[in-house]
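Standup notes
- DV: blocked on the single-chain target, sequence here:
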Amino acid sequence: MTFRPLLLFGFCFTVASTAVHADSYVCEVKQIIKLSDTGTLEDTITNSPDASLYKPLIGKTFVVDRTTGMLHGDKWFNTSESEKVTILSDGREENAFRVIYIGGAPASVTTFLYIKENAMHERKPFIVVDSSFVNLTYSGTCK
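- DV (later): unblocked, structure below
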């Protein structure tokens, strides 16, 4: 990836961010972990040969549309047209906002998003569990 597309992404995201309304979350990634072959969760930044790939994702933001569940961000945090998006809980009435994303064939990747809407802070904790070939779990906060 060259610097030019990064600038374009940053500009487009800034413009898109100004249009975010009350039915959206803006989420920031603070940690990325991966399930090891031994069944433990490992920090991808300190314990991975691919740390240089994951480190730039720390601090990235993405938008979650509360009405549709769609993710809007860069390629790591963007819902594709082939994914089936199901909102399991809309995050109202003291419930967490929960969405499941199921990718189309042949990969049939399943991703789960959980935003702790009932957290007492303005910034709500989130976790994204991704079952793609990289099997990463992202966490951070949303506003």
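- Follow-up: The first strand starts at residue 24 and ends at 35.
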